[in-house]
Design goal:
By secondary structure, the protein is an alpha/beta fold. The protein has 15 helices and 14 strands.
């Protein structure tokens, strides 16, 4: 039996949605790690563990066959965090430790696992901001960029989400990822979407600079006759920036600002949306866009178009970084219901065929063979 451990401190809320204080903690890295861990745990060949932060939960729990241990609190200072994390990682004693987000603390944990525990590391590239040191410095800071270079070099296995990410990482980092593991998405519970309810323009994401929510605010201001919805929790590390965006959003009359929606309730917002807007400069593979596709939303992306799937599979439009095209494409979508319907249907088919659970799980499990 192979013993694996996901080290994703912010992911605990997905295992226990009733806890408080996790509203800003859930992003694509957390969701994908949760899905991979719970699905892999169904296989008796794997002993699956998960190391999370302290949200006042029990020291140890088993949820959906995943063994969960808490480590540090986000209120601890950096030294206390590391000591608690090291102790938890040692107690778990896994064969493989899996990481999926860029942070200076991740690199320190990787150093401890490699040099002290002498165990193997899998690092799953989470975002295109990681593909070069220069880009990572811009969005994650100089400290994280410097420390993460160690992680990329020392990881026993490195995975990418897309071919585009795979090639770019090899070009800029001079290390070839070992495998492409696409994101996994469960099938929708609804057999049919009521398209007559699809009226809103939707944006979903944590408020960070890399996601450029200002572009959505400009769009909402310029089109006052259309209903815009923005689900935008403030991130602990970006409180001032988040507050600034929310204050601007609250002044736009046709924009409904929602601070946070629980994961089990958010599908209603996707299902009521006619167009999903992605304003990020970079993503890995956008989980919010995938959720929108599952709900038959046309996708309008400012810049992100991994492996050019939006064009290839006719899922919507990508403006390729042009605000003029971004606006023009938006006007096309909001005035053409049949086109939106076609893009929406294509999106559902794309997720079903390209992000099929069984195929991706098989690829993931091969990492341990």
């Amino acid at each position: 039996m192979t013993k694996i451990c996901f080290v994703i401190p912010r992911a605990y809320y997905l295992f226990n949605p009733d806890i408080d204080g996790a509203e800003d903690k859930i992003g694509g890295a957390q969701l994908q790690s949760y899905l991979l861990s719970t699905e892999t745990a169904k296989d008796s060949n794997f002993d699956v563990h998960f190391c999370v932060a302290d949200f006042n939960q029990p020291e140890f729990e088993e949820i959906q066959k995943v063994k969960i241990r808490k480590s540090f609190s986000f209120n601890d200072n950096i030294f206390k965090r590391l000591l608690k994390l090291f102790k938890t990682l040692k107690n778990i004693n896994a064969d493989f430790y899996i990481f999926r987000s860029a942070d200076a603390g991740v690199a320190v944990a990787v150093f401890y696992i490699k040099r002290v525990l002498r165990k193997k590391i899998i690092y799953m590239i989470a975002a295109d901001a990681e593909i070069s040191k220069k880009r990572q410095q811009k969005y994650h800071g100089k400290l994280t960029a410097a420390f993460m270079s160690y992680t990329y070099k020392k990881a026993d296995i490195l995975t990418a989400q897309t071919r585009q990410q795979f090639n770019a990482f090899e070009e800029h980092r001079k290390r070839k990822p070992d495998r492409i593991i696409k994101n996994i998405y469960p099938d929708s519970n609804k057999s049919e979407i009521n398209r007559s309810e699809k009226k809103t323009i939707l944006w979903v994401g944590r408020l960070t600079e890399i996601k450029n929510p200002e572009r959505f605010l400009i769009l909402a201001k310029n089109y006052p006759d259309y209903p815009f919805v923005m689900i935008a929790p403030i991130v602990r590390e970006k409180i001032n920036y988040g507050r600034e965006i929310q204050e601007k959003a609250e002044k736009i009359k046709n924009l409904q600002l929602i601070n946070y929606v629980k994961p089990e309730l958010i599908s209603d917002y996707y299902e009521n949306a006619k167009v999903f807007v992605l304003t990020s400069d970079y993503e890995g593979f956008s989980n919010t866009s995938a959720e929108a596709m599952k709900a038959e939303c046309a996708v309008l992306s400012y810049s992100v178009n991994p492996d050019k799937i939006i064009d290839t599979y006719k899922l919507g439009y990508c403006a390729n970084g042009s605000f003029e095209k971004f606006t023009s494409d938006f006007e096309t979508l909001i005035t053409n219901n049949e086109l939106c319907k076609t893009f929406g249907k294509n999106g559902v088919n794309y997720i079903k065929t390209e992000h099929q659970k069984g195929i991706i799980l098989k690829e993931f499990k091969l990492l341990f063979s």
